[in-house]
Structures are given as structure tokens and as C-alpha cells.
Amino acid sequence: MKPKRRRMFFVLVGFTLLAGATALALTALEGSVLFFYTPSQVAEKAPAHGQRFRLGGLVQPGSRAKLGGAFEERFRVTDCKRTIQVHYKGNQPLPDLFREGQGVIAIGAIGADGVFTASEVLAKHDENYMPKELADSLKKQGLWHKDKPGQPCAKT
User: Fold this and answer.
1) Residue 132, helix vs strand vs coil
2) Residue 109 pairs with which residues in a beta bridge?
């Protein structure tokens, strides 16, 4: 084999190995990626029971209730179309800016009973925080108004 052909052979083998390694790495990471879902998306195409994912939406007014544990609460997350009950049981309190009518992202899994069990709840340090996808969806429907954060699902 001539040197030029041998070099071309090694380059092709190298690219093939690199492509194979990339495919294996992406396949391995696929199971650990946390996807973002709104309550409507969960209703349409629910993730498998026990599969961890992010649930984003607004805390429904009047739905927050403290439970027996030190850091245990129940509340509902809504996107103004659908609502999901969330049970938070963590090792730290909910964020200070967590309140009804505000945007949150809960990380956890949905059980067979349809209740989302969250191990972590996120709230950004901004009173108007909301996941971008949810804010865009509510704006299209005419349901979200930045000047009325406590009444996000009320039409004006």
C-alpha cells in the first residue's frame, strides 16, 4: 500500500471511530437529560412513571398547603390550561420568592397516582421570573401580563 493510501485509510478509520464514540456518548447521556414540560405537555405526552423531568408553570393561587414534615408542602402548578398537583419533600425550605401566582420549576417525577413528587423547586431571584416557554405560551393566549403577576391566568 502506498503512503498516500495508507494515510487516507487511517484518516477514514479515525473519523469512523470518532463518530462511533460520539454516538455512544450521546446515547449514554440521553437517559440523564432532564426535559422541561408544562402541565399541558405532561397531559398530552406523559413521561414514564418514575422518570425524572422538570415541570414548569405557575403556582396556582389558593393551592399551597404545608404538610407535617419540616420541609414538606403541596401545591398545584398550572399553565392556565392544565394543572398538576405537586408534593414537595426536600431537605431545605422552598425558595423565599416561592409564592402563589409566580413561576417555578420543580424537578422530580410523576407517580402512578398522577401527583408530581418534587425533590427540588427552583425560583429565580426576580419577582417576574417565569420559564420562557411558559411565558411565551401565556402571552400568545393573552393570559399573562407582567404588571399583574398575582393574576397570571386572568384575561384582560
Assistant:
1) helix
2) 52, 117
